[in-house]
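Issue 218. Parser rejects a valid record. Input:
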Amino acid sequence: MKTQDKVIFWIRRGALAAVILFGLLLSLHQSVSADNDEPYIGSTLCLPDAYLRAPEECLPLGPSQTLTDLAQQGISYPPRPLPASRPPRELTNSPVFIAKLNLKADEPGYVYGSLDDAATGNNPTRKIAAGEGLRYVSYVQQVDVDGHHFVQLKTGEWMRASPAGYSYFQGLRFYKTPSTAFGWMVDHAKARSEPSWNAPEVGEMIYRETVIQIEEVVEAEGMQWYRIGPEQWIPRQDARRVQVNTTPPQGVTGSRWIEVNLYDQTLMVYENRQLVFTTLVASGGKPFYTRPGLFKIFQKKPLETMSGAFESDKRDFYYLEDVPWTMYFDQARALHGAYWRAWYGFAGTHGCVNLSIGDAAWLYQWANEGDPVYVWDPSGKTPVDPSLYTQGGA
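Output the parser choked on:
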């Protein structure tokens, strides 16, 4: 066979093979289309995204359909970061050194004129009363003698006490009001796949003080549940939600106010109808509630010693020296730092609103005497009758 004839032969043979292959592919495609009843032959899928308006050039199916469904519920995925940041870290520095009196409730704390007397327990000059409440002192120097801690008070006196640490928790400073709901974990927990205690746990452990974004709130099994992601639910017992409302409360005529939510144990700061700061707090616990109402900051004090007792036998006596960043708003009730409190988001004070030292420092710098303080309980469980309230305390 001549070379030219060979070329023609292989061309014809290749063309025949191509026709056969095309026929097979066409038959297979028609078979698959018939089986699946595919209505979009030849159309392409859109890149994964939320399509609130149907695109003409592609099909918003698969991942795009899921993202679009979430977007129609007001949910972005992955969640957009909050328009916020932590306040400066240096605000968490305590303005004083604090020591705790590690004594039994029926033991007073004795104060001495010298370190030698304090170490031997001789010649006390005065005492801090016994009580079941917390007892802390402010000191300028600390010395160990025979394995025991002794501190020198600002008065120059000495007593046995242990230097104490405190919480470095900080809230969030906002540069614009967020469009998504959020909150904090107040205990370590894993999410559940549904809003039910019977649903399986999912994902990794979420630790206390972690900021969470809340996509949905439902009532189930006698409790609020927060959806923090696809098939991820956290019960209210483990988290607190920040309820943002930039409309001034009734009676607030200026552009600045502080809001305390007793149900969620949160504090919000508003300026020019924008959220500028929020954090977790600890307010008054039963029966020493923080009184709901509209008040004004009437005195600011950088350091304040607080002491007192509420029980008739004075057994609940407490003594707290140099409480930092105190802002009185309702008789003896104040917003202030609480170096003795390890975590926030739970009621349990004598009526004051406790903040971490860093948060109290930020609020003290922002607030002016005369600024409104709006205290309320959306659950309606806190009594509002003024006759039920004493002057309050720490």
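Fixed in the parser; the record now loads. The chain has five domains: 1-39, 43-76, 91-163, 179-242, 256-388.
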